[in-house]
Amino acid sequence: MTSAEQIWQAIKSYLKANLDDSLFQEWIDPLSVDNRHCGHNTITLTLPNLVYYQGLQNEFAPHFQRAKDSLGYQLIDIAFQVNEHSAVPSESFDAPHSANGKPFGLFMDEPEGGLNNHHEPDQIPELDQDTPSISKSNSAFSRSLSREVGLKHEYTFENFVRGTSNQFAMATCMSVADNPGAAYNPLFIYGSTGLGKTHLLHAVGNRVLQKNRRAVVTYISSENFMNEMIHCIRHQKMWEFRQKYRFCDVLMIDDVQFIARKNVTQEEFFHTFNTLYGAKKQIVITSDLFPQDIPDIEDRLRNRFQWGLIADIQPPDIEHRIAILNKKAEQLGIKLDDDVSEYIAKHAKRNIRELEGALHRIHAYSKLHARSLSMDLALETFKDVLGEPPKRLTVEHVQKAVADHFKLKVADLKSKRRQRAVAYPRQVAMYLARKMTGASFPEIGDRFGGKDHTTVMHNVRKIEDSLLKDLDLKAHVESLERQLEQSH
Q1: Which residues contact 40 (CB under 8 A, 6 or more apart)?
Q2: Bigger pLDDT: 54 or 464?
């Protein structure tokens, strides 16, 4: 029978003849046969580190398969073993052997891991039998767990419009991209939808790869993370799943709030987080909510989100919105007069997507009616779309939000009860009413059951002083402020 070494030399010769010399030298030549793990119809190759396995899995699987088909080795499986004695390049990820010291296969369909150390299938409610999922074929499965980064190349720091509302988040993202795993880890970015969080994630990934093309960057939304995990549990592919997400240099998870109430997904993400953090690999997370505001998520995850740095993105002010609008118009080749851009920016104020949608709308309207982008056209285009005045924040809005937050009734805040369970939320509500509505002390006192204005002043000052040293109070107040700002 042909030896494993002979088979590999034949495959290697085929690959050398069919690949560029630089690719062959970088990826194929370092591989060698590991006779200790070769078996019946299986040859095992050693490689320096897991980056090679990821690259081979992502880029070279078709070449290996063509070589086997052409040479008549269709029944031969190829597996890989990390060489624990190899020198690992500084820019690569130093990875351990697979579970139990077994080689991991590029073409082998041997289940490893699987359900034996995970939850039972009936504890995975996120996907039922009728839900469309990844195909069960091997080729579709490999695509579902491919190492392709999936970054949008047009999302860079260079074309991200910086303003006062996002400059801190952008600065921290640039620092992370320039020094992943060392600057801020994890980096947690939060803000309302449509403010540029995903753009910054892609910009981080693009900058990292620009500086180090061999870096392993993984970007995924939390929803896709969950769906891939469910598929892998059902088809006993958890070993491959963990190789993808636990052995990378930068992991970027978008919209992490969607794993709320997904207990199995939270469990897996928890261990993924710990593995990467312990290896000093960069983690970047985005969310619509501050960690403390994400409902139904495990406290151990919530705490880990706050281990590094938290950066928020606020809605852009009028000048920033005009700059974003003009930048987008320039990219699309649309000439926009200053008065038109100012009109749109004044009314489309919730997020950047609303701005872009308004720009596309007026551009399409002008082309359809063959008219210039004038103010008259803008007024006509948006008469039924823009121009709704924002809801005015009132003391009653504050009372309702505070009562819900502390699980009380509004009547409790207006009562004369002095127990701390009521008095403390009442003080917070008075402070927020003063800060966020601009109401006078006497007016606030009237709305809280006829309290004297000096009582209101005392309570507001007490909260102001306590905010400087009471972190729990600060978290409550900031959470309520964000909630009130987003709802009005």
Answers
A1: none
A2: 464
